[in-house]
Amino acid sequence: MSAPAITPIDSAQFEALVRARRDIRHFRTDPIDERDVEWLLSMAHRAPSVGLSQPWRFVRIETPELRERLAAHVDAQVRAAGKDYEGDQDRLYRSLKLHGLREAPVLFAVYCDDETETGHHLGAVTMPEARRYSCVMAVHTLWLAARTRGIGMGWVSIMEPEGVDAMLDIPSSWEGLGLLCLGKPESEEDTPELERRGWEQRMDWHSVVVRR
Question: Which positions, given as ranges, span the membrane (predicted)?
Fold first, then answer.
């Protein structure tokens, strides 16, 4: 079998795509074409995985009642997490919109199947967490693919996994990695919201490289 032909990708276009990736919280409610949703999942499924284990599992949330239960759950977790902040940081935290679970037209819960037999445990015997790293690669692949079609994504991690698992009737071998909100952003911004709002600034990449 011959190798697939690869057309060189313009590095400036790739850099623009990476820079355009945002953790979106403000969504328009316009529906996403189902063909786009299927294409995004197919791209996520092309992500690399340890031992070709493909351990990612995407649970699509389709019922309004379940969506509202999840949103209320995350609201409660947001309030609980905010108890650690004081003063100006507390006021800023309370002003942030930390999820779009009610507005985003497409919602997934993403899981890692830690007991999958696919891949025959190759590469995961000494580092079983590599399966979860593989799932993160799938999420990031989906994230970048979404931007190419003008779709934004928000990764919601302020949740209590066991509570969400119970709502979704999840097998015990699956580990939750978060909720994914997908939809058209209300606006396109050059700078991520947490930077614009003064919550944190992006570090210079040189500062995170350690040499030995």
Answer: none
Tokens coding 56: 């990612």
C-alpha separations of 22 from 87, 97, 142 in Å: 27, 14, 12
Q: Which amino acid is at 38?
A: E
Angle (nearest 5°) at CA 112 between 183 and 141: 45
- Tell me if 123 sits within 8 A of 50, measured CB to CB: yes
> By C-alpha distance, which of 39, 40, 33 is closest to 143?
40
Helix axes of 34-44 and 130-147: crossing angle, nearest 10 degrees? 140
- How far is Cα 204 from Cα 212, in angstroms, rounded to an integer? 19
Count, residues in the chain: 212
The position carrying tokens 């979106």 is 24
10-residue averages of pLDDT along the chain (212 residues): 73 92 96 98 98 98 97 97 95 96 98 96 94 98 97 97 96 97 94 93 96 96
User: The domain 24-187 is classified under which CATH number: 3.30.70.100, 3.40.109.10, 3.40.50.2300, 3.40.50.261?
Assistant: 3.40.109.10
